[in-house]
């Protein structure tokens, strides 16, 4: 589990809030609606970002990172986000080099990440500016279904997760049920 946690920290946290390149300014809008439910408590989601990360090894799928966020985050300046809110941060792997494919994805805890797999972390009450606080959940099992039509995405996520403290050290509850639904456009980076 410690290896899996370290991998998530290495790949997810630096990607949570990265500025868009000049090439992405014309497609830098995100409008959507959604709900994140963690152990029976619901949070609204209203914006998202998708990052194109390429393939890191030949046996892995192409990597797209998806961050689904509550409106509490001000993402107008991605270099200096503000607000305390809730987030679903996913690393998704597919065969496409151009965009995240629609279809079903399952959690990969082996860290091989072939096409059709994903991993992720969910954070509630996270301070985007200080990168402190919040409750963290590492996804341990489950699935996600992605439907894409042009620049519009629809995510349906049903997973179990392990709760961690704000320092990502002490494990709390295991098998925390988490579901998420989001439909809308996403800001793009790296396309």
Index terms:
eleven-stranded mixed β-sheet; 191 residues; mainly beta; 6% helix; disordered N terminus; 11 strands; 1 helix
Give structural notes.
- By secondary structure, this protein is mainly beta.
- The chain has one domain (2-17, 35-189).
- The chain contains one helix and eleven strands, in the order αβββββββββββ.
- It has one helix at residues 2-12, and strands at 32-38, 41-45, 47-54, 62-69, 84-94, 103-107, 117-127, 135-149, 152-164, 176-185, 187-189.
- Strands 1, 2, 3, 4, 5, 6, 7, 8, 9, 10 and 11 form an eleven-stranded mixed β-sheet that branches.
- Residues 1-15 and 17-26 have low confidence and may be disordered.
Q: Helix count, per DSSP? A: 1
Instruction: Kindly state the percentage of residues in helix.
Output: under 10%
Chain oligomer state? single chain
Number of DSSP strands?
A: 11
Order of helices and strands: HEEEEEEEEEEE
> Uncertain runs with pLDDT below 50, 5 residues or more?
1-15, 17-26
The count of domains is 1
Mean pLDDT value: 82
Radius of gyration: 15 Å
The biggest beta sheet reads: 11 strands, mixed
General shape: globular
Structural class assignment: mainly beta
Q: Beta-strand percentage?
A: over 45%
Q: Gap between N and C termini, in Å? A: 32 Å
């Amino acid at each position: 589990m410690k290896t899996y946690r370290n991998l998530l920290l290495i790949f997810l946290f630096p990607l949570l809030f990265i500025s868009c390149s000049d090439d992405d300014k014309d497609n830098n809008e995100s409008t959507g609606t959604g709900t994140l439910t963690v152990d029976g408590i619901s949070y609204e989601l209203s914006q998202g970002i998708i990052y194109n990360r390429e393939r890191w090894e030949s046996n892995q799928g192409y990597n797209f990172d998806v961050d689904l966020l509550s409106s509490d985050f001000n993402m107008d300046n991605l270099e200096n986000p503000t607000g305390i809110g809730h987030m679903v941060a996913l690393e998704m792997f597919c065969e496409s080099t151009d965009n995240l494919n629609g279809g079903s994805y399952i959690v990969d805890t082996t860290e091989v990440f072939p096409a059709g797999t994903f991993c992720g972390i969910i954070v509630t009450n996270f301070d985007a500016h200080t990168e402190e606080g919040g409750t963290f959940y590492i996804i341990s099992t489950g699935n996600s279904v992605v439907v894409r039509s042009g620049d519009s995405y629809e995510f349906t996520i049903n997973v179990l997760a392990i709760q961690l403290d704000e320092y990502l050290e002490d494990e709390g509850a295991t098998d925390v049920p988490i579901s998420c639904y989001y439909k809308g456009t996403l800001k793009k980076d790296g396309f």
